[in-house]
């Protein structure tokens, strides 16, 4: 069972916490982590790209000139791909990029991502994140105190003051325990989690 330090908003160590090995101490399955990232990025694609082939563009019904005797290369339509206004060769059509993973695969990929952050000492647990007002500077000070630059901040509940204070910092993203995903965990250098969020994650995924 991994034991990590717990810090306050001033960056001072105020205790320790034991992390559940069922969530934060699994064998890291890099293949599943890769599949989860590929699936998430693929599922964000709209798949609405479309261009017209020569059978879909308008015009071009008549042969532009006779087959022989003009000195031109033979042509059958003014809407062939080599003509201006012609159709596109192998034009893209709308398609579904969705990749589906099994529920167990998703859970294990998430656990593997969290475990990798613990092994790399890139998971910081804070006792709480509370602000009396919405102020970006206050959140930036907390990040400096924790020596974190590019971070995913996981909250147990939606605290408007925290979320709005972090929103204007381009290297910080806030998430709730039910919205965390493998891509974000790996994208950010550090994962900052509140004690309450750790308890919720262990309760859901253990």
TrEMBL record:
- GO (cellular component) term, any one: ribonucleoprotein complex
* Keywords assigned by UniProt, alphabetized: Ribonucleoprotein, Ribosomal protein, RNA-binding, rRNA-binding
MF terms from GO for this chain are: rRNA binding; structural constituent of ribosome
What Pfam families does this protein map onto?
A: Ribosomal_L4 (PF00573)
Q: Which InterPro entries match?
A: Ribosomal_uL4, Ribosomal_uL4-like, Ribosomal_uL4_dom_sf
Q: Answer yes or no on keyword Disulfide bond.
A: no
Q: Which residues are listed as membrane-spanning? A: none
Biological process (GO) annotations? translation
Q: Where is this region: Disordered?
A: 43-85
Complexes and interactors: Part of the 50S ribosomal subunit.
| Described function | One of the primary rRNA binding proteins, this protein initially binds near the 5'-end of the 23S rRNA. It is important during the early stages of 50S assembly. It makes multiple contacts with different domains of the 23S rRNA in the assembled 50S subunit and ribosome. Forms part of the polypeptide exit tunnel.
Family affiliation:
Belongs to the universal ribosomal protein uL4 family.
Q: Which NCBIfam families match?
A: rplD_bact
| Name of this chain's protein | Large ribosomal subunit protein uL4
Taxonomic placement: Bacteria, Bacillati, Bacillota, Clostridia, Lachnospirales
